[in-house]
Structures are given as C-alpha cells and as structure tokens.
Amino acid sequence: MKGRRVAFGRILLFIVLPIILIILAFKLIYIVRIYSGDIPPEMPDFTEYPVKGVDVSRYQGNIDWHVLSEQDVTFAFIKATEGSSYQDPCFTYNWKESQDNGVYVGAYHFFSYESSGETQAQNFIETVGELDGNLPPVVDLEFYGEYVSSPLSREKTRAILNELLKKLEEYYGVKPIIYTTIKAYYSYILGGGYGKYPLWMRDTYREPLIDWEFWQYSDQGVLEGYDGVQTDQQERYIDLNVYHGNLETFLKKYQLSQKGGINQ
C-alpha cells in the first residue's frame, strides 16, 4: 500500500508540476511583454472608476485650473514639500486656484531618505497649514537618485516613515495616504504594519493587485491647460489617476461637500 502511495505521488508530481511551470512561464512572458510595451497598458474601467484626477507639481508650470477642471478632473493631489526644507514654488498658486475652480484637493509630501520624519512633517505642516474640508495629507514614498541602485535599509526607512506618519496623523487627526510604487511597496510597506493607511498605488501597466484607494495609471497623460517646464524641455505630460469607487463613496469617505459641476 505504501508503495502505491509513493507511485501515485510521483505520478501527480510529474503531471502537476509541469502544468504549474507552464502557467508560471506564460504569466512571466505576459508581464515581460506588458513592461516592454508589446502589450498596451491596461486602462481603468471608467464606468467602475468614474472619479478621475491628476497630480501636479512645478513641472506642470503655469496651470489654468479652469481649463484643466473642465476635462473631467474631479480631484488633484498637489505637491507641497520635499524632505525637510524644500517647498514647491507652485504650491500656493495651485492650492488656491484648483479649489476656486471646484476641484477637490490634497497636498503631498515627497519622502526623503536623508532627514528625520519629524523635520519632514514640520516642513509639510508649516507649508500647507490646515486641511479641513480637503483630502488627507499624502506621503510619496518611492526610489530616487542613488537610492534606486542602493536602497536604504528597510529598518532605517521605516523608522523615518513611521515618525513622519505619526506626526502628520497627530496634527491632522486622520491617517495620511501613502503613495508608492510596486517596488517600494514590496520593499518597505508590505509587512510593516501599514494596513490601515489608504494606498495610492502607481502602476502604469495594469490595475494594481494590491488593495488600493487611488491608482496612478499613467504618467504620460496629455491634457490642456498647463505649460510645464522641466529643466529646459517642455513637460508635455501630466499624471492621471482614478479613485476606487464612485463620487458618492468618494465624498462620504473623505467627508467632502458636493461641488457644483462635478460629474459622477
């Protein structure tokens, strides 16, 4: 009887294992073709995710928020700060003009691996001020510069991030949104106790498999109403996003008031 079980196990192994390997190979080929551009990036289903938005910084230059808002832009995340000392020069203008033109707004902070979470939070709070009636603060965690090839350790990154999130939550009374890339998510967020923080995921190839609140699905959107400059080149593109739900859910989730002219 024991010999029969062993033989049966071997038969299953020889049948099931090749099938699993074939499936994994097809998935790997599919992923490679997506990221190489052979397969077009997956776009959101706008009937399922009708609440659209953008995120902007000084790279979009002078923005005509009336023109931009007329292109089905319901919300915008606006860069406010970076690290412990940098403030985006266009923040004040963008913050006021976007709201004056009926756009729901949130301010975001670009995370630095080089300074403490406390001083980064202080920079954001002093620059942005109160956020009553707007979206929660956002921490943008991604790899940049030398940290692309030489990432800071998980322990050191989480120590800075935890302090930053704690200070922002203490001041604003809400959990900040964490913006992150797939690589940064698996490097720092997964398994770090961040399950209660809303996630704004960047994936310009397919809908994220990770549970997301906002999805940045394109960094090559082209809209009218901005004349951005990056170094000496005209910045043609604007980041495009969707919210994971309809307008009613969006307003209720973040305790926002209905604004005139916003489409569901």
What does this structure look like?
With 264 residues, the chain is an alpha/beta fold. It has two domains: 1-40; 52-253, TIM Barrel, CATH 3.20.20. It is built from seven helices and eleven strands. The strands form two sheets. It has an eight-stranded mixed barrel. It has a two-stranded antiparallel sheet with strand order 9-10. Helix 6 (182-189) links the parallel strand 6 (177-181) and strand 7. Helix 4 (117-128) runs parallel beside helix 5. The chain is globular and about 70 Å long. The termini are far apart. The model has no long low-confidence stretch (mean pLDDT 89).
Rg: 22 Å
Strand order of the largest sheet: 1-2-4-5-6-7-8-11
Structural class: alpha/beta
CATH homologous superfamily name of the largest domain? Glycosidases
CATH class of the largest domain: Alpha Beta
| Coarse shape | globular
* Unreliable residue stretches: none
The CATH architecture term of the largest domain is Alpha-Beta Barrel
Q: Domain count, please report it.
A: 2
Beta percentage is 15-25%
Spatial gap, N to C terminus: 66 Å
